Amino acid sequence: MDKDGKIEERIELSKEIRKAEKPRKSDDEIYNYFFKNLNANGVEYNYVRDLDKKLSSEEIIKRLAGGDMTKGSCASVGLAYIGQKQGWDVLDFRDGQSRIFFSCSANLFKLSKTNGIRSLRADGKSSMTVGNRLLKQIEADKEYYLCVGKHASIVRKTDTGKLQYLELQSSSHNGWIDFDGNPKYTLHERFGCTTTSDRGASSYFDFMIDIAESDFKTQDFKSLLGYINTANSEQRKGTHGTIK
User: Fold this and answer.
1) Mean pLDDT across the chain
2) Which of 22, 49, 197, 208 is deepest in the core (most CB within 10 A)?
3) End-to-end CA separation in angstroms for the chain
4) What pLDDT does residue 244 have?
5) What is the value of pTM for the model shown?
6) Tens digit of pLDDT for each residue in 46-76?
């Protein structure tokens, strides 16, 4: 290899090293808050690499899903799905401080307010009312990240008008699951929504992100996923895991 070739090689290596370092600063103040808190809490950063080739939705589901052996990774595995759709190699079911951070409704709410994200909201005195009104805003053939009640999941409406949510935490039945004929039943049974008044908490914190209309293909979001990304052998999922 000639001298110029060696210099180029060192430059590329230097770029890779910088990428692997924990992010510390962003032009978006919310991401600054995320990085500061994640680093302060000692959450391991696992750099997210690009996939060798873009995967189909079915391939992504197969890679990500499994019986959840953590205390509940619905929010973070949903974000990992969005990352996979961008063409990134990101896995989840890490648990620990990572899961605690990404399962916090206040942090998810902040994420929905970051630059480039199109979030939908709804008024209502209970999580059931808010959830039902959010579902009514879903357009056919588009995917959304729904965070309502006690659960977060990717949802969609088929071209025949059928509402579905993406199950990623089951030990045996993962993939797209139909909402019951009465969506409120599924909102109660899977999302933990209730008709009890929450004094506006759901109206404020619960949301639904239009994935197609949002810009997730940013370095900030990719860096954030580094705090979710988990080595394949360290994923806490399996046949003894359960939906949460």
Assistant:
1) 93
2) 208
3) 55
4) 83
5) 0.91
6) 999 999 998 999 999 999 999 999 999 999 9
Q: Kindly tell me if the per-residue pLDDT of 7 is higher than 80.
A: no
Do the bridges between strand 49-50 and strand 88-89 make them parallel or antiparallel, or are there none, so unpaired?
A: antiparallel
Distances (CA, A) of 220 to 47, 182, 200: 12, 38, 31
Question: Which residues on neighbouring strands pair with residue 165, listed in sequence order?
Answer: 155, 177
- Domain boundaries in the chain? 24-234
Alpha-carbon gap, residue 189 to 12, rounded angstroms: 50
Are residues 143 and 163 in contact, defined by beta-carbon separation less than 8 angstroms? no
**Distance between alpha carbon 216 and the CA centroid of its chain, in Å?**
11
Q: Report the C-alpha gap between 20 and 27 in whole angstroms.
A: 19
DSSP line for the chain: --HHHHHHHHHHHHHHHHHHSPP---SSHHHHHHHHHHHHTTPPP-PPEEPSSPPPHHHHHHHH---B-SS--HHHHHHHHHHHHTTEE------HHHHHHHT-HHHHHHHTTSTT--EE----SSHHHHHHHHHTTPPBT-EEEEEETTEEEEEEE-TTS-EEEEE-S-SS--EEEEPPSSHHHHHHHTT---SS--TTHHHHH-EEEESTTS---SHHHHHHHTTT---GGG--BSTT----
Structure tokens at 6: 């060696």
d(CA 64, CA 78): 9
User: Do the Cβ atoms of 208 and 145 come closer than 8 Å?
Assistant: yes
